[in-house]
Amino acid sequence: QVQLVEAGGGLVQAGGSLRLSCAASGRTFSAYRMGWFRQAPGKERELVAAIGLSGSNTYYVDSVKGRFTISRDNAKNTVYLQMNNLKPEDTAVYYCAARTAVVGEYKYWGQGTQVTVSS
């Protein structure tokens, strides 16, 4: 089992940047595929970005491509989401999640961190 704790959310103006971090504890972090999700009020949760075990494989939803970067540091048991050129529509609670399987649902979740982008 792994425990996940997000940090780095906050209030930022449109065009600004934030870096979210997700610290993992418990079993070997390098065994987990990681994802960042977000959920805005009244909307379904969506996968924003994902990263494979070594960090070489990544995925981004179209709406954040070219603006967000997911990365991981297995030595620090941490996954990051660098968010640049933020837009008001990026406002949401952001969650990190982990799974060991190649495909399927993410099994472990953090508590979430609020990101608010003002226009």
Write structural notes for this entry.
The chain has 119 residues and is an all-beta fold. It contains no helices and eleven strands. It has strands at 2-7, 10-13, 18-26, 33-39, 46-51, 58-60, 68-73, 78-83, 92-99, 108-109, 113-118. The strands form two sheets. Strands 2, 4, 5, 6, 9, 10 and 11 form a seven-stranded mixed beta sheet that branches. It has a four-stranded antiparallel beta sheet with strand order 1-3-8-7, with no helix packed on it. The radius of gyration is 13 Å and the shape is globular. 33% of the residues are buried. The model has no long low-confidence stretch (mean pLDDT 96).
Compile the SSE list and pairings:
Layout: E1 2-7, E2 10-13, E3 18-26, E4 33-39, E5 46-51, E6 58-60, E7 68-73, E8 78-83, E9 92-99, E10 108-109, E11 113-118
Parallel strand pairs: 2-11
Antiparallel strand pairs: 1-3, 3-8, 4-5, 4-9, 5-6, 7-8, 9-10, 9-11
Number of strands: 11
Largest sheet: 7 strands, mixed
Helical proportion?
Answer: under 10%
Structure annotation, total helices: 0
Q: Which percent range describes the beta-strand content? A: over 45%
Whole-number average pLDDT? 96
Compact description:
The chain has 119 residues and is mainly β.
Q: What descriptors fit this protein?
A:
119 residues, mainly beta, 7-stranded mixed β-sheet, 4-stranded antiparallel β-sheet
